[in-house]
Amino acid sequence: MSRRALVTALLVLAVVALFAVPLLLDGGASEYGGTDAAVTEELAADGHAPWAESLFSPSGEVESGLFALQAAIGGGVLGYVLGRLRGRRSAGRPGPAGADAR
Questions:
Q1: In angstroms, how far is the first alpha carbon of the chain from the final one?
Q2: Burial level of 61, CB count in 10 A (0-12/13-18/19+)?
Q3: Interatomic CA distance for residues 77 and 5, integer angstroms
Q4: Cα→Cα distances 10→4, 7, 24, 25, 61, Å
């Protein structure tokens, strides 16, 4: 096994351990909730009320789908912008020697 492959395997193992060890140490005793729910409970306990009501309250599956759609659109926009910036940078450089200009 080459040094590069060993380093890659160790890094992958470290990332897996980073996520697996806390879950194993917890033993399933904790309930993993979102920060939105925790903050909402804290604010309600302090007597704060929401400023506005939701216009649209989708079910959990629809909400997850909308979140995934938002993430996909954001990833597409980010990829497009980075591609354009890279294209601009490489457009100013001449091609490799002996390449035909098309």
A1: 43
A2: exposed
A3: 33
A4: 10, 5, 20, 21, 37
Q: pLDDT higher for 5 or 36?
A: 5
What was the pLDDT predicted at 84?
A: 94
Task: Provide the pLDDT for residue 77.
Answer: 98
Region 27-48: what's the mean pLDDT? 82
| DSSP string computed for 26-68 | HTT-S----HHHHHHHHHHHTT---SS--S----HHHHHHHHH
Q: Is 97 helix (H, G, I), strand (E, B) or coil?
A: coil
Cα separation values, 40 from 10, 52, 62, 63, Å: 40, 14, 21, 18
Confidence (pTM): 0.46
What tokens does 69 get? 């759609």
Tokens, residue 28? 């399933």
Residue with tokens 């897996």: 16
